[in-house]
Amino acid sequence: MNKKSLPPTYFDEVYAANADPWSFESSDYERAKYAATLDALPRPHYDKVFEIGCSIGVLTAQLAARCEHLLAVDVAQAAVSRTKARCADLPQVDVQCMQVPGELPAGDFDLILLSEVGYYWSPDDLRRALDWMFSALRSGGHLVLVHWTPVVADYPLTGDEVHDIASRQAGGQGWRHPLGLHDEHYRIDVFEAPSAVQAPSAA
């Protein structure tokens, strides 16, 4: 069976029914997972960061303290509006409505965060997105994946499938894997881009 990515209308309906559909603002589980996500970042501060699937911006606002510039995107306009309001006093945060991987930003990044998004994509769209992420990260940059692992019937992929696909692609390109955390309900994986090899100086 050919699995398809969930369309933007799916998320429009979810946010129309509930302004905080996954209880990001009130859940102790989400609060602990956000803390684990930030603890997993290998560097204390990043110059240029891309967050895919910011939702209503609860993690975005916390991540902003670790960034010089943060581009946060979501496919749902309602979520983007909530994130803009939450981060209005954070000038380093730029929030846009964007459907990855069909739409992608220009430039490169030191950190890309894919949190609770990959399982909404088809396997083909996930691989396409990962290929772009690997090419868009600067030398020594980090790709951080965070996903709920129990099966959700609506979703094309499970969190484990997302991380396993990413691990295979990263390994095939020579990326390091400095962290792999398996919680009871979620996984966090950190991948590091190979550092540029400098040519030897002339004698």
CATH topology of the domain at 99-192: Rossmann fold
Radius of gyration: 17 Å
The biggest beta sheet is recorded as:
7 strands, mixed
Quaternary organisation = single chain
CATH superfamily of the domain at 99-192: Vaccinia Virus protein VP39
Report strand %: 25-35%
Structural class from helices and strands?
A: alpha/beta
Give unreliable regions as ranges. Answer: 198-203
CATH architecture of the domain at 99-192: 3-Layer(aba) Sandwich
**Strand order, largest beta sheet:** 3-2-1-4-5-7-6
Helix content: 25-40%
Total number of helical segments? 6
Give the strand tally. 7
The geometry reads as globular
Provide mean pLDDT, rounded: 94
Q: What separation lies between the terminal Cα atoms?
A: 60 Å
Task: Give the ordered list of helices and strands.
Answer: HHEHEHEEHEHEE
CATH class of the domain at 99-192: Alpha Beta
Question: What can you see in these coordinates?
Answer:
The protein has 203 residues and is α/β, with parallel strands linked by helices. It has a domain at 99-192: Vaccinia Virus protein VP39 (Rossmann fold, 3-Layer(aba) Sandwich). The protein has helices at 8-17, 28-40, 58-63, 77-86, 123-136, 159-172; strands spanning 46-52, 67-74, 93-97, 109-115, 137-148, 176-182, 186-192. It has a seven-stranded mixed beta sheet with strand order 3-2-1-4-5-7-6, sandwiched between helices. α5 crosses α6 (159-172). The radius of gyration is 17 Å and the shape is globular. 37% of the residues are buried.
